[in-house]
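Example 3.2
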Amino acid sequence: MAALLSIFPKNFAVQLSESPFFALPDPSFLHYAFEPSFMIPFAVAGLASGLRVVGVLTTCQQMNDAAWRRPDMKNIQGGVMADGVGCALGGLLGTPGMSASPSLVGIEKTTGATSRIIAWSIAGWLILLSCFPKFSSLIVNMPRPVMAAALFFNGALMFVAGIQIVASRPITLRASLIVGFSILMGLSVVIFPEFYKALPDWSHQLTDSEITVAVISSVTLNAVFLAGAWRYSQVRLGGHGRPLTTKSFDDFFINQAKQWDISAEDIGRVRSVVDDAIEQVAANAHGPVEIRIGSDTFDFMVTLTYRGNLPPLPDARPKQEMVEEQSFVSGLTGYLSGLHADRVERSAKEEDCEIRLLFHL
């Protein structure tokens, strides 16, 4: 349609005719220099790019897991590392900065094609097409209406995906301030450009872009609001002739979890795990058990402190499902009873014992 409406650049036909049909990439243009004044802007740009990769990978995880609840940070860590290595190699080869593409993720979400195998075939095509200058000329001279249509299409998909990621966690007052204030700060660069132009010259490298301002605002607020994010409460079970049972903990935990807006599914999982732990601790404790619970809306921690002996608990959640015979052979005491915290820590000094269970919500 762009060709029929003659909205290609005026010199497009000339460039296309002068471009050879086949040619190998020419590295003769490469030369290297270092400019210290670019360090801070590139650091902020690198942080913004890294955060964008986190958002892109989180969207990919959502698309591939119908039961997705929170980002898989190990997977994201590998993705950010791969993205950074690719960008560094691109810089050494003199290419523009590279990063994970939100637009391509939008296409994946629309088509439902998310297999990794597709990436290998695309990489092969890109290597092949890099040897065809006429095709590169067509891409470089893409008409603005075509770019705008692609931007609106993919931008709409990524915008909604971003909202879904934000809304996947409880919207606390802290989260509302971080998200809302950062968006407004970014928009203020577009709405009130005169204000930012009036700032000192040295600050322009940090305030000329709405993305930079939003990144600085969100990272700073997130760091500030990490202080005091954890909430704690505790209860004592047993002692003074009272039996050490799980009912007292369940009543205390359910009331506290409702105040902290923890989902019913997570309440049930934590209860089953801690109840099993209390039963095992009761057989090894010489007196009351102090239980301290804490949460920061992303994780839930339960700490059991008592005098006695440490029961044989598994150190971590099994990496894969195991049949009953396998769990018996492996000696994972508590596996069949459902003792699966995301992390289990145990410590003992003489008779003073502590068991810490961490759950990812």
